Structures are given as C-alpha cells and as structure tokens.
Amino acid sequence: MSGRLAHIFRHPIKSHGREALASVVLSPGASLPWDRHWAIAHEAARLPDDGGWAPCMNFCRGAKAPDLMAIDCTFDSASGRITLTHPDRPAITLDPETEAERLIDWMRPLIPADRAGPARVYRATGRGLTDTPEPSISILSLASNAALGAAMGLDLSILRWRGNLWIDGWDAWAEEALPGQRVKIGAAVLRVTEQITRCRATTVNPATGRIEGDTLAALTALRGDPVFGLYATVETGGPIAPGDGVEILP
User: In this structure, are residues 117 and 109 in contact, taking their beta carbons and an 8 Å threshold?
Assistant: First the structure.
C-alpha cells in the first residue's frame, strides 16, 4: 500500500482559515508547525489557568458557526502576521498576539446570534490546539474523499475536512486499516493512532460557508460510523513536501 503526498495544509488559527504549503519540517512529538497555533475562545469557554491544551468545545468553530468554514488565510511566520479572507468580509492582515481585538471584531459577524460570541485569542504553551490531547497530525485519502463525494452526488472539496496531509494513490477507505501502524512520508515517520470522528463542520461547503450535503449521514451509511481520516503522531522528524513517497512500514 504505497502512495504519494499530494497536499499539505496548515490552519494557524483553529477553524479560521487554511493555507497550502510547499514543504514543512516535522518534529517528533509535535503537531504540524504553526497548525492550530491559536484559537478563538468563546464567552462560555473554560480554559486551563496554566495555558495548557483545551478541547475544541471551548472555541469558536465551524460546527457551530458554518460561516467560519469559508475563511482562507496566508501566514508569515517570520513576522507573525496573518491575512484572512472571506467572501462576505473585507480582507484583513494582523498579528493575532497583539491585535486580538481587531481579529475578534472582524470575525464577530460570522458567528450566529444564538451562539456564544468570540471573547479572546488563546494559545497553548508549546503545542498546537489539535482536537486530540496529544499533538497530532491528520492524514487523509483523496480516493476516500472522491468515493464519498460520488456516493453523495457532490464534488466534495477536500477543505471540508480541515486536514493536514492528503495522500494520493491509496485505494478508497484503505486507510481504515492503519491505526497502530507506522507510515513513512518523505523523511518523516508517523504512527497512526486512531480514526477521526467527524462533526457538523464537514457538512459545510467551504467556498460559501453554507451547509450543503450531510457528510455525517453519508459516512454512517457507507462505513457504519461518521469517521473520516486518521490522527497520527510524529515518531521521526524530517522534511516533507508534496510529491514525496508514502509507504506503510512493517
């Protein structure tokens, strides 16, 4: 079961935009660099006093605010400044660390009135705010996305899944057998830990921020559960780039 790395995406602000990368260097025990580096805590959030990891329920996200799914971004790690764009909002460039209020004011119209509003920018100490307690990287299959889209009669954008690493060349759904195994991508080795249980954010068309297609019901009908993609942890670090070979290690 071999393939190649087709795409790398990072999401500097959790649920607030994505950008494709030409390459990245992975480090053991770490998430993708700058992925989910910040999140927007809502008014009802309960966050740890020590700046540690917190679960996604504490943050503004696409499952509760579909319009957030239509945000794109570009991030300059040297300056710490990020540019956010959305079809219904003017583009904005800012530093989330020093211009948090500008960021919150910009995104506030994208949050439904019956949901807890954005309150502050949060950053965990020394790690990304992944959806798992351990720093993780998500691995997804282009063939599985195409198979699901065909079953639904939709051209499903891969951006619905907010994934990190997209693999081409695997048979559809073959990745479901990988939890517990090691995957070599370029110079890096990752251990697959579990499948990803999906939320309502994936029912949103990321081009528009509007709900279009019940991915959760379709996954349950096809696979028995609303799962799609894999979480993995980095065992051996190194550079990776689209075009790199992907192999399952014994």
Answer: no
Q: What is the spatial distance between Cα 56 and Cα 132, in angstroms, rounded to a whole number?
A: 9
Beta strands in 127-237 (DSSP E): 137-141, 165-168, 182-185, 188-197, 204-205, 210-211, 227-236
Please check whether residue 127 lies inside any domain of the structure.
Answer: no
In order, the DSSP letters of 231-245 are EEEEEE-EEE-TT-E
pLDDT digits (tens, 9 = 90+) for 114-145: 999 999 999 999 999 999 999 999 999 999 99
Total residues belonging to the chain: 250
CB 182 within 8 A of CB 249: yes
Q: What does each C-alpha distance from 14 to 27, 39, 199, 223 come to in angstroms?
A: 20, 5, 15, 27
Q: How far is CA 67 from CA 100, 190, 202, in A?
A: 20, 33, 12
How far is Cα 68 from Cα 144, in angstroms, rounded to an integer? Answer: 24
User: 111 and 140, same structural domain?
Assistant: no
Instruction: Please give the residue range of the domain that contains residue 26.
Output: 2-30+132-249
Number of H helices, E strands in the chain: 3, 17
Residue 229 within a domain = yes
